[in-house]
């Protein structure tokens, strides 16, 4: 393990002392690819008689969405969690002796949202230190990450936490790079760019792919991509998660400072202790989660507005809705009647490929 860390340190040092210009871009690209490979080795250790996968830290996924809280000790994560869960919660904290407590589930706008405290994600976790690896595995399954920062020293912490998460292949608030990548059996590297590239040229792309022992592939660059973007696509194990920075302890700063903070993107100032601005935070969480609520309507009855079926925004067809309720439902499915924003007429008869929108009402008609 230590040798890998030494290699990583060596490459990082070399990258730090290499000037960035056109002539060295190629070399830097190579180093970046090497670094990404070593990093991956750290996260997923090579074979060796296993004591099973990382023991102990697995949290059952409950609710419609999962939010991970990341932050240094004593920035008020626990206070925030217990106060959020205390104000809006329906379950007690269950104990997980190994690593963490799951402080519970909040109900917000009819959706059940699971809140997870992710401790020990801090410096060195991506180098396989401590319990870092299991925590990260859970972090990668979250639908949203809240980084809790102390408003008095936010930037130092923010940088460190972001670096850790990046090192694990978690990309915050970004879209997957628009790069097409397809391996082939023969034909060499075929590079097409649909717009001018400031960083990648055929040479660099070739050398990065060669580092991965890929010598035949189609690469299509549809946006001005960086070497890092290309590596992300080749590695293919990146997850893209929205993220909100929660600045805690705003009771310790002046109103003028607060006004400045309000202008920072992805940022919500709160005070966990005094429960200030929780509604704003919840509203923002809801925005970032992009959940879609569907109300069900039994035949001849009023729609049930108390417990919607909640779907993630990426999967909102009628078929997804049926699968969420029960997988046999789709076999008996004849058509559905939908009221709401996704249809032109109310009600409208739709098939299983119809895409639903937030707060639609649906009635399933069986065969």
Automatic annotation (TrEMBL):
One of its GO terms (cellular component) is nucleus. One of its GO terms (biological process) is positive regulation of microtubule polymerization. InterPro entries: Beta-grasp_dom_sf (IPR012675), DRG (IPR045001), G_OBG (IPR031167), GTP-bd (IPR006073), GTP-binding_2 (IPR031662), GTP1-OBG_CS (IPR006074), P-loop_NTPase (IPR027417), Small_GTP-bd (IPR005225). It is found in: Cytoplasm; Nucleus. It holds the Pfam family MMR_HSR1_Xtn. Signal peptide: none annotated. The keyword Hydrolase applies. Residues 290-366 form the TGS domain. Keywords: Cytoplasm, GTP-binding, Hydrolase, Magnesium, Metal-binding, Nucleotide-binding, Nucleus. PROSITE patterns: G_OBG, GTP1_OBG, TGS. SUPFAM superfamilies: P-loop containing nucleoside triphosphate hydrolases (SSF52540), TGS-like (SSF81271). It comes from the Eukaryota. Residues 65-290 form the OBG-type G domain. One of its GO terms (molecular function) is microtubule binding. NCBIfam families: small_GTP. This is Developmentally-regulated GTP-binding protein 1. It comes from Lipotes vexillifer. The lineage of its organism: Eukaryota, Metazoa, Chordata, Craniata, Vertebrata. The gene is DRG1.
């Amino acid at each position: 393990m230590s040798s890998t860390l030494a290699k990583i340190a060596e490459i990082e040092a070399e990258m730090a002392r290499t000037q960035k210009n056109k002539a060295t871009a190629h070399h830097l690209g190579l180093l970046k690819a090497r670094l990404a490979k070593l990093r991956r080795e750290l996260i997923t250790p090579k074979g060796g008689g296993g004591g099973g996968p990382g023991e102990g830290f697995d949290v059952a996924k409950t609710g419609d969405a999962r939010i991970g809280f990341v932050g240094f000790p004593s920035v008020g994560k626990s206070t925030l969690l217990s106060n959020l869960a205390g104000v809006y919660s329906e379950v007690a904290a269950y104990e997980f002796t190994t690593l963490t407590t799951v402080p519970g589930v909040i109900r917000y706008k009819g959706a059940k949202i699971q809140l997870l405290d992710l401790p020990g994600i801090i410096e060195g976790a991506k180098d396989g230190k401590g319990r870092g690896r299991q925590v990260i595995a859970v972090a990668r399954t979250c639908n949203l990450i809240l980084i809790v920062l102390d408003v008095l020293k936010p930037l130092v912490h923010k940088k460190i936490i972001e670096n850790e998460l990046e090192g694990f292949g978690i990309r915050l608030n970004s879209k997957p790079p628009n790069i097409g990548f397809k391996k082939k059996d023969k034909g060499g590297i075929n590079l097409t760019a649909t717009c001018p590239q400031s960083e990648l040229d055929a040479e660099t792309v070739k050398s990065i792919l060669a580092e991965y022992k890929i010598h035949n592939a189609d690469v299509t660059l549809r946006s001005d991509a960086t070497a890092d973007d290309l590596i992300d696509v080749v590695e293919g194990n990146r997850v893209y998660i929205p993220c909100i920075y929660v600045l805690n302890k705003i009771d310790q700063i002046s109103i003028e400072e607060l006004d400045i903070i309000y202008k920072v993107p992805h940022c919500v100032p709160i005070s966990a202790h005094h429960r200030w601005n929780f509604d704003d935070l919840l509203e923002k969480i809801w925005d970032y989660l992009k959940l879609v609520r569907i109300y069900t309507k039994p035949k001849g009855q009023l729609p049930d507005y108390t417990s919607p079926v909640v779907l993630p925004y990426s999967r909102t067809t009628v078929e997804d809705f049926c699968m969420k309720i029960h997988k046999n439902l789709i076999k008996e499915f004849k058509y559905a009647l939908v009221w709401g924003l996704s249809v032109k007429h109310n009600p409208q008869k739709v098939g299983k490929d119809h895409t639903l929108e937030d707060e639609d009402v649906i009635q399933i008609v069986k065969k």
